[in-house]
Design brief:
The protein is an alpha+beta fold. The protein has a single domain, classed as Alpha-D-Glucose-1,6-Bisphosphate, Chain A, domain 4 (2-Layer Sandwich), CATH 3.30.530. The protein is about 25% helix and about 45% strand. The chain is built from three helices and eight strands. The protein has an eight-stranded antiparallel sheet with strand order 2-3-4-5-6-7-1-8. The longest helix is centred in the C-terminal third of the chain and has 22 residues. The radius of gyration is 15 Å and the shape is globular.
Length: about 140
Amino acid sequence: MAHYVTTVSSPWDAVKAFEYVTDFSNSEQWDPGVSSSKIIMGTEPGQGTVYGVKAGAAYLKYKTLEHEPPVKTVLEAVSKFIRSYDVMTVKATPDGCEVTYDATFELLGIAQLLNPGVGLFFDRIGDKAAAGLAEALEGKII
């Protein structure tokens, strides 16, 4: 299992940042590993909304498990070989907000034998996504 956490400080107000990051269809704008992302079940971000996400050769369906505006959203994708669990939280600050992206990734089934080495690979992917998120939110990684 691999785990990645980053926090971005942004001048955006917390509500605006929450609306942006919790609409996972925006992930293709800030995560260079995502080539497409769109809502495939539901009409807007919220609990139960499902996103179809293409990342490299993988196509994952992320379901919104929790949606607590303007503070927290939790998404999970599970396939035969992959489980991805993402928590995004937003905290208002005097100068804007802080967005924390907490992602857990694990290989399942026979692929779980590769879990010990997946952490370094996931860190590189996470660093690129964090840089893209900071740029999109006009902020910086803290």
